[in-house]
Amino acid sequence: MNIENKIITTIENAKQNVVKITTSKKKGFLKKKQQQINYVVVAFFLKNNYIITNAHVVENMDNLKIELINGKKYTSTIIGKNID
Question: Virtual CA dihedral for 42, 12, 45, 63, nearest 10 degrees?
Fold first, then answer.
């Protein structure tokens, strides 16, 4: 296999781990306004639909929405983070 085919194969295998994470944080006195931030990141998929991504992507956010490359969308919850 030549280098071009190796690169194509690597990209094809890796694209399944690229997700779009949309985060939002309620702000303001009555917390009605929302700040929305979109990230396209590489995440590691684990059993039971857990993903691991960088802590700064989800830090201080209230709502998380995940979109996979195939278009499927999920609402997500932060279960832990390590900022060290």
Answer: 50
Which are the contacts of 64, defined by CB distance < 8 A and separation ≥ 6?
21, 22, 23, 58, 75, 76, 77, 78
Which amino acid, 62? D
Compute CA 13 distance to the chain's CA centroid, rounded to the nearest angstrom: 17
Taking only the tens place, the pLDDT of each residue in 14-25 is 777 777 888 777
Indicate the pTM of the whole model.
Answer: 0.61
Distances 11 to 5, 34, 43 between C-alpha atoms, Å: 10, 35, 14
Q: Which tokens sit at 16? A: 């399944």
Distance CA 62, CA 24 (A): 6
Separation between Cα atoms, residue 11 and residue 42, nearest integer Å: 12
